[in-house]
Design goal:
Helices cover 29% and strands 20% of the residues. It is an alpha+beta fold and 205 residues long. The protein has one domain: Bira Bifunctional Protein, Domain 2 (BirA Bifunctional Protein, domain 2, 2-Layer Sandwich), CATH 3.30.930. Helix 3 crosses helix 5. This is BPL/LPL catalytic domain-containing protein.
Amino acid sequence: MGVSGKPAELLEIESVLDDQVPVIRRFTGGGTVIVDHGTVFVTFICNKEAVPNLQPYPRPIMSWSSSLYSKVFQGIGDFHLRENDYVFGNRKFGGNAQSITKNRWIHHTSFLWDFNVQNMSYLKHPKRAPAYRSARSHLDFICRMKDYMPRSTFMDKTVDATETQFSLRPIQLEAIRTCTEAEFCPSSRFLTNEELEAAAVALQK
């Protein structure tokens, strides 16, 4: 759930509590997404000057990222950026979120390579939905990437497209954990049952 998201407006709270679904309020903006083994994340963490002539504001960053992914999905599924979503035709398969500070920006995407239909019932129809959704249900609004390309192909093509913008060097996650001594205090956090219950009570008033 995005940093400014309100659980009562975005989640079927009773179902979330009954099924003990963890809810994370992340530090970036954007909407709410169900995350499981079928979700693929791609994140760009960039210094302000990392991409020449790119203004560090939401729309220019969004435009830049869609241009990069146009290389990944060239000739596949009528890919384009629609409002703030990546879509094939008029069905969403990628949701985006950003965080921008004075000297750095983050742009990350949750790609729906696959999803469990039942899990979508935890999400309410958001009040601030994109116009192109046209009040469609989640299942009519989204699609699976696996119906368009293999997961490994997507990863390879994303690396290839990213290499047109940056000089890449692969590194193992464990190496990242051991190469820094700086303390990190994450601002993303799990919402407690008490917070979710309070949101549910407030909704009933």
